[in-house]
Amino acid sequence: MPSIRDVARLAGVSHQTVSRVLNExxxxxxxxxxxxxxxxxxxxxxxxxxxxxxxxxxLNLIGILSAxxxxxxxxxxxxxxxxxAREEGYSVTTLNLPDTSPEAIGGAVRQLLREQVDxxxxxxxxxxxxxxxxxxxxxxxxxxxxxxxGALEESVAPDQLEGARMATRHLIELGHVDILHLSGxxxxxxxxxxMRGYLQALRDAELPTIPPIRxxxxxxxxxxxxxxxxxxxxxxxxxxxxxxxxxxxxxxxRDAGLDVPRDVSIVGFDDIPVAxxxxxxxxxxxxxxxxxxxxxxxxxLASLRGEAPSAEEPPAPALVVRDSAAPRR
Length: 329
What we know:
elongated; four-stranded parallel sheet
């Protein structure tokens, strides 16, 4: 592995100058800084973070506080956060909450602070997590990938409500008037936003509402719901709050002898990779979760550098029309 002295020799400077460039010392001339950076790239030099921390008291470490395990959106965002952080010279440590009690949340934040993180990205989609965080003196910048009433001001989040309105409007435009909603768990920010978007679209069209069914995001629950709902005759379409429940729902309807979309139309949310390959291919709402992760890191690093965050909004949700929803018969 190349050393700091190898970089210094290639750049024609002292190793102390290389150290000053790495630590962003203001006295370094721009021309000298560029020669050092070029040498670092040419040699693919990686600073020893532990040694650097002894000088700067910084580990260049980002903490991720997560209360989700296995869900597609957060998993895709975390992968993008890790990649974007590495590109900026930061390492990432992820701490998954065992539960979302105030004690567990406080303990997790304190653990990240003991690890000397420079900032924290919050991927904890339960409303109660934000109530606890807002009451803590954390002392480092942090940013959230969720937004809701009472959540963090520093957030990078898609317009979940508009995405749900879009999905429901699509079913309305296909002629459906009795549209059921299979929602996510109570207290989840995404579940609440998507349910409110569904209800708003029905109100805008002056259509009757059917009490939503609370799910748990899993395909197993969707399958169970499909078997149970097949006995009812009061709906012709379902907007499911995520793709896994929508896919399970299609399976349940098929097992009960119903055809999708001939007998019932279904729209999901998230656009997980498999959504295009189930039968029938699932109409859904696409969210760019990787983009959200990259934006979270950009906003967090801007805060660490004392810069104003970008005013650019995340990409809007997009309806992906496939074959699981059809005109009402």
